[in-house]
């Protein structure tokens, strides 16, 4: 019996070892690199972002009317500068940055694209267009109008998850960003009346004091709410892989990341905007868990089905599922990958395209403050 006992332990140890080493970081999947290279590539992205700001300032100074914007390729460690006037490439002011610069001759300046963006929105609204993205695509030097194609039921993240680590049962499971929310019809007990969406982040009142135990607010998308007078909106929270909605520990600074055997929780230390096209952006949601993509556009609007429009959005190429809507959108930061900066929440999703709303717009309109470390 002793030998059987040790054999089981040995097999179990091998299973744990295999599970841990099968995990691939979302940024490693995005950039097609090894886990150990993620920090190096994040540093590269950080340097490119600083360089992009400097180069943009120079080009706008010497030839604003001919500047078509900049986009980054993190894997290639390059910035592509769109210009209408080829002579701008020869400016001596750019000499210190040339190792990471490529130049692309385009037909439209950034200012012209912004005018085209406004005109396109006006025309789309006049013709009653709905369920469409409209955004400035710097890479193709054009304004894109694209219908929202819903994600298929089999949509996978970049590189499907190879495992789900088994963790001990928690007495008071935490409710974190990215956890699931679902509705139940209380007139018919136990019936779920819509698909799950996800928690974005926590906020509190501007004048609230911690010692007074102020109320916390869970921020998510309006898609979680059902406009039906015959139904009551009872929202239940469910963690990844859980069969029960019995969660009690409301912690306002964490993001669920339980696919990672090392860092099951990510901590929000601050919030910041998206600044560089081609830079990484990630989300945590009930459907695809934590996945990452690239920032495709910093200027975007969505025309809703009811005739309204959602402004101030950014466009990403993150793969998503319906259950991810409302989930946390964030950036990894240096030097430790367990600490992140919040961007906002996932508000619109489709096939290989998703829109996120910045947290500053949400907080300004609700007069709330972000919970953070």
UniProtKB/TrEMBL annotation:
Signal peptide location: 1-22
Entry keywords, A to Z: Signal
What protein is this chain from? Uncharacterized protein
Instruction: Please give the organism.
Output: Gigaspora margarita
